[in-house]
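Following up on my earlier thread - several people asked me to post the actual chain instead of describing it. Fair enough. Here it is, all 107 residues.
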Amino acid sequence: MSKKMFALNEDGVTEWVIAENKNQALSFAANMWGIDVVLNYYAEDKESNPELTVKEFIDGFVREVPSESMFTHHEYGDSHKDVVKKTMGEFLDDATEVPCYFACQDY
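Reply from S.P.:
Thanks for posting it. Predicted structure:
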């Protein structure tokens, strides 16, 4: 099974999803958020670029994160917050399910 990390919606609140490819990552997010949310993002982008294709939207909205990139993950427990800093590749090694949700940006 191929595992890659993808960052979605970097113009707003970024969310990270583990998937095999960009299409699977976006499909997973659409199931999680609701398809209307994704269609609204596409419509917003299309307002500023009327010739935007679906492929161009996906390429801009879903970014593959290099496995060597460092990432700080804040894991909230019962009474404290643990901070785990590893490469994306190390986090991917720990993943047992694809596709799956990984993290949401604090805002």
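The first strand starts at residue 4 and ends at 8. That should answer part of your original question.
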